Amino acid sequence: MVELALVEGVRRRMGDALFARVAGTKGPARRQRIHGRPGPRWFPADAAIRRVHGDASMFVGGVRALLLQSLHPQAMAAVAAHSGYQGDPWGRLERTSTFLATTTFGAADDAAAVVAHVRAVHGRIRGTTPDGVPYAASDPHLLRWVHVAEVDSFLAAHQLYGEHPLDPAGCDRYVADVAVVGRRLGVIDPPTTLRELRAELEAFRPELAATPAAREAARFILLRPPVPVVALPAYSALTGAAVALLPPWSRRPLGLPYLPPVEQTVVRAAGRGITSLIRWVLPPAPATPGLPVGATAA
């Protein structure tokens, strides 16, 4: 009994520390509002988006998404100039995790409010790349790239490291679910099936290139992470799993290795280990009360 209590204490401390990093000091209150506030939701309790976004594999998918998204020069220029990802990486993570949790699990009016806030922020972000190409964060084409890269990354991570991977029909449902949020954000006609998603990703390839800003972002994420020394082994397992999930064609521009034998054995085992550890230390989200409704954002 004493040993079990000690183990539970360790689990709780690790979980609290990780949750505080991801969700910030206001995380517990936000979590209670997101999951505890009565009212209709955009997605029903059995929605594919809830299964994917509620799983520890999102940590791997999130890193992969950042690396993949950086390959669009205009999108990366906007991030480098306006996101403050190096000066306040934990704040950016907190904002992203709150957005995902609210739109996936929160009450419909809260979800609509957080989307409206993001759209207002996007409306103020504009500039010019070092090559003289103008960009605007509200540009539907750039929003489409960010959306496609993110959805592909979250789904790829879930299918390999998720506790309950989706079947083919479930993958299509996930893409369709996230399209609801994408439309609200300003993405025009987002993909709604896995086949459409992959076709969209392929169609963007001629526009992609590794700029100095993209390579700097990769170095920051992979080599200079703002994490305590004691957490570096776990972080390395996480980022290694994310890099191994990237399409082979995306590696060379970012200076990332492509070692299939190692990735399919050592890296994959480490990825499964770290996602299992995260799943163990983070308690499951509380059940959402009330009767969720289907997505109403067409």
UniProtKB/TrEMBL annotation:
InterPro entries: MPAB/Lcp_cat_dom. It comes from Cellulomonas fimi. This is DUF2236 domain-containing protein. It comes from the Bacteria. GO terms for molecular function: oxidoreductase activity. Residues 50-274 form the ER-bound oxygenase mpaB/mpaB'/Rubber oxygenase catalytic domain. The lineage of its organism: Bacteria, Bacillati, Actinomycetota, Actinomycetes, Micrococcales.
